[in-house]
Amino acid sequence: MAESLLATLILLPVILTFVFKSNAATSFLALCGGFAVITLSGGDIQHLIGKTKITSLTSNDVSLILLLVPLLLTLLLTYKSVAGGSRRLLQLVPALCAGGLLAAVAAPMFSDSLNTNLSDSQFWKQLQNIQSYIAGAGLLSSLLLIWSSGFTHPKNHRKKHK
What we know:
It is built from six helices and no strands. The protein is an all-alpha fold. It has one domain (about 1-150).
């Protein structure tokens, strides 16, 4: 059960990126932003939700929402933004890294609600050992893809008057 959960979380961004032809580089960065929000202000958000009388949400639910919504929304908003064979294949690197990071962060939250023990899984142990490499490779590949796509600058068209 643990291996299937991890495989699903890892392959979800890869499949969505390939099917939607989405920009995986920006979705990896959106996932990192969601993780930063969980890390820095997840407790404050949970406290705020507790004050609004929404008692059916647990802290894991709030964390999963803050993690998954930016990733999925970015994949949907960048629908068909990547065209071409080689650029589309290059998007699979940050997509795979996004899946690995998603599995490393979200799997413990899912395993609590699904009553799955991840610590017995050899796949989980290997994922824990390489999670810093996944984050580094994902960031580097995302930034390189964004930088190589170029930035559009407004052209300064000056009209010459006679």
